[in-house]
Amino acid sequence: MAHSVKKYRGLMDWITTVDHKKIGILYFAAGGLFFVIGGIEALLIRLQLMFPKGTFDILDGQTYNEVMTMHGTTMIFLAAMPLVFGLMNAVVPLQIGARDVAFPFLNSLGFWTFFFGGVLLNISWFTGTVPDIGWTAYAPLSGQEFSGTGSDYYAIGLQIAGIGTLVGGINFLVTIINMRAPGMSFMRMPLFTWTSFITSGIILFAFPALAVGLIYISFDRLFDANFFVTATGGNAILWEHIFWIFGHPEVYILVLPAFGAISEILPTFARKRLFGYSSMVFATALIGFLSFMVWAHHMFTVGMGDIANALFGVATMLIAIPTGIKVFNWLFTIWGGKIQFTTAMLYATSFIPTFVMGGVTGVMLAIPPADFQFHDSYFVVAHFHYVIVGGIVLSLLAAAYYWWPKMFGRMLNETLGKWSFWLFFIGFHLTFFIQHFLGLWGMPRRVFTYLPNQGWDTANFVSSIGAFFMAAGVIVILINAIISIKGPKAPADPWDGRTLEWSIASPSPEYNFKQLPLVRGLDAFWLEKMDGKKEMTPAEPLGPIHMPSPSILPFFMSLGLFIAGFGFMYRGYEFESAFMNNLFGYNIIAIFGLAITLVCMFLRSVYDDHGYHIEVEELQKEG
Ligand code: HEM
Ligand SMILES: [Cu+2]
Fold first, then answer.
1. For ligand 1, is residue 604 a contact (CB within 6 Å)?
2. 470 Cβ inside 6 Å of ligand 1
3. With a 6 A CB cut-off, is 131 part of the ligand 1 pocket?
């Protein structure tokens, strides 16, 4: 029965891994890198807007449009999303008592397509044709008539990265449905797993819309189609509908796992179980459903008419109800608790008021006549940074400090942690609170400069100072992560946690659970501990464990798409050399790339891969 498998080391191990824990770390590393890139772009924006026109102009209009577009696109698609997926990979299989995800190969493919899509998008900085159309890529601006190859980098880069998200979502849906340990019924699953489940469901319905929309843009640009070209019967507003049918659920794809992390951290450090578990689960499902009902609140000013505006306005306000249920349940969870303010708990508790501030301005924006004033002003920029940075990023940082010991087997430094928190938190409110007023005072978004003495000078200066505080906070986080490599080793259960991931070693062994655990209720590990046990009761005898084998194919499949994407976007480009014109003009590069991908898919389908077994003797040797 024993099948031996080639064990890779070093870089090859990371390139071929299908282990969800390692893929989680890869997502953290790549998402972290893109967060830093998006952060540098944000600092450039704030430096440019720190002083009015003529004082300290570092970016011209074109470059500003590029930096602003790449900031928004990178932060949403290449930073926030992968960080969320990193957490889901690191935590969900452990929380449900599984040895692996349902589709390890697909999981690896999900990472590499995201990564190569992100690299392709950012290569545009070196080829000098950077997307400059805003992260929303509205037509006809994103069409051939008004923008250059940068828009192809946007459309094709996100298309490839989007494949990663879609297969990742499918993988987690099936994992959570099929891989739960004995006794882990749905209503015994931890909230982080529930929110990851709903998020994966939203991905299944939202990302195909984006994929179709991006195909339309690419066809309009590369094959002279007319989907969004009004002059020839297309419809530019159609893109806005398609983009936001994806775009609004997208923000819930990001925030729901963040909510889930908060629902794990608060009970642990308040030493009280989560208040209102069932209502939390139903609120999550309701938010998931409603998130598809509100997209046109981004389009109140395009002229849809009062009835449509009113309907979308009311639907948007409805989301405040299940979100409110969550907020009160979090407050009742910590109410009367024995609170331990670790760094994770500081970030988690600061999330609640900050996110509520973002939510409240969201309800203001949902009123169509009021939005006619707010639309495309800095009030909107402030609102979505309060929900995205104040909501998602603060929770992701809380989650990183909470699950870091389990992921890396090392403890982060709490003093540095608390420094990072105060610098980031104060910086955040300094940057974005004042922007609400800039918007009310009439400052539009997406302007690269402004004239002096319009009442915006001091506010912009303060906002930029805030951004540097945030940067300092991020630098302290990075230092903390680096020094933790040699930091104190982490015990299995550093926080006296409640869920299954704390019942196994830190970092968890390749096979996660030597014997699958028997789950007897919600907060499965806490229940065992309350019975005086140190470990989970096993649900099966010790036996050989089957593991999937590593593979290089996902890496090459994604590399093939990267090459093909590059080939397609330059097919109409006028190069100086005839050789280059032939190479790209006859789609040779594009076909070469697709051939690599197709050959890998063929190999994957014909090569019979049985994986391998870890034998009982080996497990017993580990003690
Ligand atoms: C970390 C500190 C950050 C700062 C200082 C910052 C600053 C800004 C500013 C000033 C703008 C407005 C640019 C304009 O309208 O001209 C902007 C736009 C934007 N930001 Fe951020 N941001 C930060 C983090 C983030 C994060 C974490 C995300 C998402 C995960 C994000 C997503 C966006 C998006 C989507 C836009 C709209 C871009 C567009 O108009 O096309 N930002 N940011
Ligand atoms: Cu929305």
1. no
2. yes
3. no
| Spacing, Cα 384 to ligand 2 middle (Å) | 9
Could you tell me the distance, in angstroms and rounded to a whole number, from the CA of residue 78 to the centre of ligand 2?
19
pLDDT at res. 351: 98
Nearest CA to 208 among 175, 246, 180, 151?
Answer: 246
CA distance 40 to 18: 32
Atom of ligand 1 nearest to the CA of 466: 5
* Pairwise CA distance, residues 500 & 512, whole Å: 11
Kindly list the distances between the CA atom of residue 353 and the CA atoms of 31, 343, 394, in Å, as whole numbers in the listed order.
26, 17, 11
Whether 6 shows a pLDDT value over 70: the answer reads no
Cα 327 to middle of ligand 2, angstroms: 20
Contacts of 393 (CB under 8 A, 6+ apart): 80
Domains of the chain, with CATH numbers?
A: 10-541 (1.20.210.10), 553-623 (no CATH)
How far CA 27 is from CA of 12, 22, 107, 360, in Å, comes to: 17, 9, 11, 32
Per the omega criterion (within 30 degrees of 0), is the bond before 541 cis? no
Ligand 1 atom showing the smallest separation from residue 80 Cα: 30
Structure tokens at 333: 């969870």
For the segment 181-192, what is each residue's pLDDT rounded down to a tens digit? 999 999 999 999
Which residue has the least CA distance to atom 34 on ligand 1?
Answer: 72
Q: How far is the CA of 399 from the centre of ligand 1 (A)?
A: 22
Residue with tokens 């720190």: 50
Q: Which chain residues have CB less than 5 Å from ligand 2, an ion? A: 248
Pick the residue whose CA is nearest to atom 23 on ligand 1. 42
* pLDDT score of 530 more than 60: yes
Provide the pLDDT for residue 153: 97
Ligand showing the shortest atom-to-Cα distance for residue 365: 2
Tens of pLDDT, residue by residue over 99-155, are 999 999 999 999 999 999 999 999 999 998 999 999 999 999 999 999 999 999 999
More confident residue, 542 or 9: 542
Please count the CA atoms within 13 angstroms of the CA of 559 that sit on its side-chain side: 9
Are 594 and 557 contacting, i.e. CB atoms less than 8 angstroms apart?
no
Q: Which bound ligand lies closest to the C-alpha atom of 438?
A: 1
Q: What is the pLDDT, as a whole number, of residue 1?
A: 43
pLDDT band at residue 4 under the 50/70/90 scheme: low
Q: Give the closest residue to 62 by CA, choosing from 76, 48, 75, 72.
A: 48
What average pLDDT does the segment 560-575 reach? 89
Residue 581's pLDDT is 84
Instruction: Grade residue 8 by pLDDT with cuts at 50, 70 and 90.
Output: confident
Give the residue carrying structure tokens 């600092």: 43
Q: Which ligand is nearest to the CA of 393?
A: 1
- State the distance from the centre of ligand 1 to the C-alpha of 254, rounded, in angstroms: 15
Terminal C-alpha separation, the chain: 23
Please work out whether the CB of residue 158 comes within 6 Å of at least one atom of ligand 1: no
Pick the ligand that lies closest to the CA of residue 72.
1
